[in-house]
Structure formats: C-alpha cells, structure tokens
Amino acid sequence: METADTSPGARPLPLSAAPPRAGLHRFANPGRFLQLSGRVLPWLAAAAVLTLGVGLAWGLFLSPPDWQQGETVRILYVHVPMAWLAMGGYAGLAVGSILSLIWRHPLADLACRELSPVGAMATALCLATGSLWGKPMWGTWWVWDARLTSVLVLFFLWLGHAALVRAFDDTERGARMGAILALIGAVNVPIVKFSVDWWNTLHQPASVTRLGAPGLHVDILYPLLVCGLGFSLAFAALVLARTRAAVMERRIRALQLAAARRADIA
C-alpha cells in the first residue's frame, strides 16, 4: 500500500489510489513515476553507455588532429558537451522551478533537487577541461573574459541551488527558495551563450551551431555530436536515477513514520 510523504515540511505526494489528474500531474503519482521510470532507465542507461563509448572511441582515438590545435582538440570531445549540459541542464532546472512554483507539481521539487548536483558536476568538468585546453592554446589556465566568468557564475548558481534546497528543515520552503534562485539565475544562461558575440573575448565563437557552415571539419564534428548525445543520455539517466532514489527514500520515511505512529497509538 502506497502512502504520501508525511515528513515535516514536505509537500505530500499523492496516493497511488488517488484518481489520475490531467496533464503533467498524472505523472506526479510516485507509484506511476517509479513504474514508468523503471522501464525507461535501463534502456536510457544502455543507450548512454553505447553512444558514449562509440563517441569517445571515435573522438579520442580515431579522429584526426586539428590542423591548428593538434592533439589538443581531443579535449573538446568532453569540454563542449559539458558546456552544452551546463546550460541546457540549467534551462531544465528553470522549467522544473516553474512547474514547482506555479503548478505545484509534486515531483518537480525532487527532480530539481537531484538535478543541481549533476549540473554542478557538468559545469565543473566544463571549467576544468576548458582550463586544460586554454593552457596550450592561450598560454594560461584562466582569463577573466566574459565567457569564462559567466560559466563560473553558472557553476556558483548550481552550487547555490544545491545548498539552498537542503538548508531548511521545511523541505517545501527550501524547494521554493531554490526555485526562486533558479529562475533569477536563468538570466545568466543567455549571457553564457551569447557572451562571445556581445563582447570581445579570447574564447572562440560558436563553431557547431552555425547552420550550414559549421566551423569544424566533419571528421571532428561528427564524433563531437555523438559524444554530445552520449553525455546527454548519461546526464538524463543519472538525474532520473537520483530522482527515483529520492522518491523511494521519501516513501520509506513516510512508511517508517506511519509505523511509529501506529506503535504509539497501540
């Protein structure tokens, strides 16, 4: 028998016996979410491993060196997908925050809570690999230009959200504060994306998203796109697995609390 989360301050998840609601709320039922995600997660993880294995092998070992960057170009097979995930993941965090604040979607809080550590990890890898690439190409590990600084701000926003949602005993209040921070910080995402166009920076402009005339040769572009897809699938699988674990943890706590209450009554 399923039960709602009755821990202090937590937004209750609906009972599995409750009548389904229309729209996104029909996925708010923890039993339905666990059932659906349990079917999707193994396939998602397998696709991530397969795609990422092909992409990394292709990019790191089979693709040719760049005529300007030489072997250093291989860092981009990790750096560029991490940059995409840092920005795209934060856009997803903003969407989840809207679902939480406006539509009060019960699972949105949990998804956002589990998304922020993964997003912070992707952004940290973006910064680290960017520094590894910058040293041989620019002669320095770090420069305070618009792109690098805005990505660093994005990293602190990820960390701030992860810390804020866990800083309150009242979990609903923490989720609400985290959602507000996420929506305010979303202003930084277009700054990261267009900083190389708006300001004069050392960072090179977009090379992949120029439709019809990408700045990369196909021998480098294609494995980069495969790596991007593989890392995206792995990112989604990790967030989904963390969200499943959070739902199950809440259900276990709720069952334990209900059992303790029954024991007190008896």
Total helix count?
A: 7
**Gyration radius over CA:** 21 Å
Q: Which CATH top level class fits? A: Mainly Alpha
Unreliable stretches (pLDDT < 50, length at least 5) are 1-9, 14-21
Computed structural class: mainly alpha
Look up the CATH topology.
Four Helix Bundle (Hemerythrin (Met), subunit A)
Count every beta strand, where a strand is a DSSP E run of 2 or more residues. Answer: 0
Question: What's the oligomerization state?
Answer: single chain
Q: What order do the SSEs take from the amino end to the carboxyl end, as H and E?
A: HHHHHHH
Q: In percent, how much strand structure appears in the residues?
A: under 5%
**What is the overall shape?**
globular
Largest sheet: none
Q: Alpha-carbon distance between the termini?
A: 20 Å
When the domains are counted, the total is 1
- Work out the helicity level: 55-70%
Q: Give the overall average pLDDT.
A: 84
CATH architecture classification name: Up-down Bundle
Keywords: Cell inner membrane, Cell membrane, Cytochrome c-type biogenesis, Membrane, Transmembrane, Transmembrane helix, Transport
Protein name: Heme exporter protein C
Membrane topology: Multi-pass membrane protein
Function: Required for the export of heme to the periplasm for the biogenesis of c-type cytochromes.
